[in-house]
Amino acid sequence: MSDLALSRLAEERKSWRKDHPIGFFARPQAGADGVANMMIWDCGIPGKDGTPWEGGLYPLTLKFPKEYPVKAPLCLLPPGFFHVNVFDNGQICLSIIGDGWKPTISIKQICLGVQDLLDNPNPNSPANSSAYDSFKKNKAAYTEKVKQQAKKFPPQES
């Protein structure tokens, strides 16, 4: 692990604790020994009110490479997640964590970007053929499947 990556992630954690969007969470995973693994974070992305995603709290895993922040983290939703821009393995296709990555992009910006992507898929960059076909050919069926998926990820009790 690089000192730069760990230093930046410590700053991200401190910044998140001071100011983060309501309903979201982001924290390093705890190892079996209870020590935080700063290189892997568990996050929760709430679906926006008034969208088919409403009512869900979607689990997002951020895996940071040793070259972070020069290289973007791997961002994963659960395998099989139904979305136009999410591969079967859960990997998200989103410009700010792909070709548009900049070392100044924060964990907060990633989480907000994923939330925005949920209800605003990019059909020009499909990663999931089933979701893409449904989105393009039968919007009502797509919306219904999203609403059913939201029920699989209820908000957690604090």
Automatic annotation (TrEMBL):
<dbReference type="InterPro" id="IPR050113">
    <property type="entry name" value="Ub_conjugating_enzyme"/>
</dbReference>
<dbReference type="InterPro" id="IPR000608">
    <property type="entry name" value="UBC"/>
</dbReference>
<dbReference type="GO" id="GO:0099139">
    <property type="term" value="P:cheating during chimeric sorocarp development"/>
</dbReference>
<dbReference type="Pfam" id="PF00179">
    <property type="entry name" value="UQ_con"/>
</dbReference>
<dbReference type="InterPro" id="IPR016135">
    <property type="entry name" value="UBQ-conjugating_enzyme/RWD"/>
</dbReference>
<feature type="domain" description="UBC core">
    <location>
        <begin position="4"/>
        <end position="155"/>
    </location>
</feature>
<protein>
    <recommendedName>
        <fullName>UBC core domain-containing protein</fullName>
    </recommendedName>
</protein>
